[in-house]
Design brief:
mainly alpha, 0% strand
């Protein structure tokens, strides 16, 4: 899976070099960089695991998790959302520096 993210990053990098003013290419490039961050990959691992499961297995897993580990489940959801925004900020700082985008 890491090779897939690296390949996506390379393709988007080439597209940005061809047309650097295209907003869509810029956003996709930043997203590719975000998905290549180690912190994001750690929290993305359970999502990749869930994609391999069937719908009934996912439903059963969620019911058991809610019954047994409710506080832990809430913590994982919060950490997942937090990791999304933290990696987005890391990529923004790496690409644009500490200044605001578009300034």
């Amino acid at each position: 899976m890491a090779v897939e993210y690296k390949l996506k990053e390379t393709y988007i990098w080439n597209a940005v070099r061809l047309d650097p003013e295209d907003k869509q290419y810029q956003d996709e490039f930043l997203e590719a960089l975000q998905h290549n961050e180690m912190l994001f990959k750690i929290f993305l691992w359970p999502v990749k695991f869930l994609r391999k499961m069937k719908n009934w297995q996912i439903l059963l897993t969620w019911v058991v998790a809610v019954l047994l580990f409710r506080p832990l489940l809430i913590l994982f959801i919060v950490l997942y959302v937090l990791s999304h925004w933290v990696t987005k900020a890391i990529v923004h700082v790496k690409v644009f520096g500490w200044g605001r985008r578009g300034v």
